[in-house]
Amino acid sequence: MLLTIAFLHRYTGVAVGWLMTLWCLSGFVMMYQGYPELTNAERLRGLASLNLNGCCQNPPALPVQDLSGTRINMVSGVPVLRVPGAGAFDLRSGEALPDRTAQQVQEIAASYGRGAGLVSAPSQLAFDRIDQWTLMSAGRNHPVHHLAFNDAAGSEVYVSGNSGEVIQDTNRRERTWAWMGAIPHWLYPTVLRSKPRVWTQVVIWTAAAGTFLTVAGLFLGVSRINWRRRGRKFPFRGLWNWHHIAGVFFGVLALTWVFSGLMTMNPWGLLENNDDGIYGHDLTGTARWQELQRFMLEHGDELSRYVEIQVTPFNGVFHVTAFRQDGSSQRLNAMASNVEIQRADVAAASAHLGARVLSLDSLRQEDAYYYGHKQAVALPVFRLILDDVGHTRIYVDPATGTVQTLDLNSRRTRWWESALHNMDLPGLRTRPVWDFIVLLLLARVTAVCATGTWLAWRVLR
Asked: Residue 325's pLDDT is what?
């Protein structure tokens, strides 16, 4: 039995041990530099102030009735209505927004660059080509223009010719660290990630193999300890001995990391999120074109202080969240007055839910499910706990009207995935405590994986 497990452990180590070592090493980078992404603050910084003069006289042919979640911002001097999943519409002509010309794309990129403090003019690098940094966004933003600013930081942006929005920005530092962090950690090179089904199966089965490798190593490590012997209880010498000792003491931690990495892929639907957004929609209600049209016609001049508005009704009452270029926001009612959601509003809206409310609290500090790991979360926030099968939790941001719903599987994911993989445990995620502990533990697990891989390959050789 032990010989069979040892054989499987050794040759699984030959197959995936090097990959586990790579995951550990790239994990150090991932602690401080993730995959390049366009943050909402960066996106807002590149937008022009709203100019609604002459808009809204020609209602667009909208494919949906409910405009909740739609956004309005400027593109090439034109106010544009963006309907999630349904396209963008010119609010002056009422027509679908046509593809941007090369000159318009240059202007959009230049405006974004000015917001980011870039003074050089952008130049086009490529057109409508999926590359490493647009793997997940190029398809739905076709055609995509890739432009560079030729500055010292190597700044580059990607602009959707269809929507007229900047969809990605990167610089040389982010791209370099991504090749040492996120790309090897997620097995994310273009040649693999551009085939989603293949990539999913590769990640699932390599993580499953790593889980088996770790479980087998733990079993062997504990079984090889000579518990009855006085003095030296570990039977090996040299590097074998160091691998044995490190594996016994830190193998469980290695197992939690590789297993939780497997769980991030939701293998075989084990952690499928069953929430279909019904609860959130029941709280917010709907918003109609007539309400939005009236709001823009009556308050267009006042809205010029903002760069974007998002339609965010609550309990069926029309509201928008208006964003400034610096990322700050205000929640406005139909009279353009600044208002926030009150506890009474949440209580009234909860009457439309399909389940009884067990509790309604106003949180002024994080709880186990609403928290920030590397970025702060908005506080205070209202929390509802429902008396349904999964005791669903709903969090409502009073300042923006954002509704976040967590069903039973979402909460399981928080523990089986986030807590184990990111070590964002209560009492531990405070920095720099988190940094010190994770760096120390990750170094130990790296030693386990690296020594095991070297020994497995040495035996094979």
From this structure: 94
Q: How confident is the model at residue 253 (pLDDT cuts 50, 70, 90)?
A: very high
Q: What is the pLDDT of residue 230?
A: 67
d(CA 240, CA 246): 10
Closest by Cα among 350, 317, 351, 348 to 331: 317
In the predicted model, what is the mean pLDDT of residues 186-207?
94
Structure-token match 């057109």, residue found? 127
What's the confidence (pLDDT) of residue 9?
84
> Which tens digits make up the pLDDT trace of 142-158?
899 999 998 999 999 99
| Token pair recorded at residue 248 | 């016994």
The answer on pLDDT for 275 being more than 70 is no
The verdict on pTM exceeding 0.85 is yes
What gap in Å lies between CA 83 and CA 172, rounded to an integer? Answer: 33
- Pull the structure tokens for residue 403: 């509704």
Give the confidence band of 273 by pLDDT, cuts at 50, 70, 90: low
CB 16 within 8 A of CB 86: no
Quick one: which of 443, 419, 427 has its CA closest to 250?
443
Q: What is the pLDDT of residues 279-291, one digit of tens each?
A: 778 889 899 999 9
